[in-house]
Amino acid sequence: MQNDTIRALSTTVGRRSFLKMAAVASVFGATSSFASEKVTRAATEEEVKNPFPGSKKVKTICTSCSVGCGVIAEVQNGVWVRQEVAQDHPISLGGHCCKGADMIDMVRSEVRLKYPMVKENGQWKRLSWDDALNRIATKLADLKKKDGADAVQFLGSAKMSNEQAYYFRKFAAFFGTNNTDHQARI
Ligand code: SF4
Fold first, then answer.
1. Are 92 and 123 found together in one domain?
2. Tens of pLDDT along 64-102?
3. Which of 4, 91, 94, 167 could lock 87 by a disulfide, CB 3.0 to 4.6 Å apart?
4. In this predicted model, what pLDDT tens digit does every residue of 91-140 receive, in sequence order?
5. In a mutational test of the pocket of ligand 1, which residue from 92, 103, 107, 183 has the highest number of ligand atoms less than 8 Å from its CB?
6. Which UniProt key words apply to this protein (predicted)?
7. Are residues 150 and 108 part of one domain?
């Protein structure tokens, strides 16, 4: 049961955060109090062999950049619980950079941005996509009118494909500026 709690905790907070918490707990002696209260126990042989019963492996890709390296996501009851590299992926051939290796923690992060938000009077609030687009368009038009098109810089993204980068560049040109760059350069 306690092992389930720890496994559930590690599943909820993510591997990296869980390891950080464990390190902090160890510094402050919390692990010894866990041990003395018998909060932990050794996993059974079956649990070691199969820690996520009923899970299935799903082929997917890392979405951090447009290379699209292969990831095997292990999913249990709709929750991504572990990941491996996809050895047979034709592009990445079983390799990852550090962002891909940490994909599971990014996807499960509690601070992951999932919808447009705006900070008003010190508070973050959720926006609809239409509202967000209207606000951005209005702001861009205002800036251009007040300070000229060169007052704006357009920053591309590593997630863009070649075609998206092409459209992005065109969009900046139609707006009236050559101020384009790439997020990775800053
Ligand atoms: S961020 Fe790294 S692992 Fe992810 S697709 Fe790009 S190169 Fe591959």
1. no
2. 888 899 999 999 999 999 999 999 999 999 998 999 999
3. 94
4. 999 998 999 999 999 989 999 899 999 999 999 999 999 999 999 999 99
5. 92
6. 4Fe-4S, Iron, Iron-sulfur, Metal-binding, Molybdenum, Oxidoreductase, Signal
7. no
Residue 26, CA distances (Å) to 11, 35, 75, 180 in order: 20, 11, 30, 47
Ligand 1 contact via 70 beta carbon (within 6 Å): no
**Residue 180 shares a structural domain with residue 128:** yes
Nearest atom of ligand 1 to the alpha carbon of 101: 3
Of ligand 1's listed atoms, the one at least distance from the Cα of 100 is: 3
CA 69 to chain CA centroid, Å, is 15
Report the number of distinct structural domains present in the chain.
3
Does residue 64 line the site of ligand 1, with CB under 6 A? yes
As a whole number of Å, the end-to-end CA separation of the chain is: 47
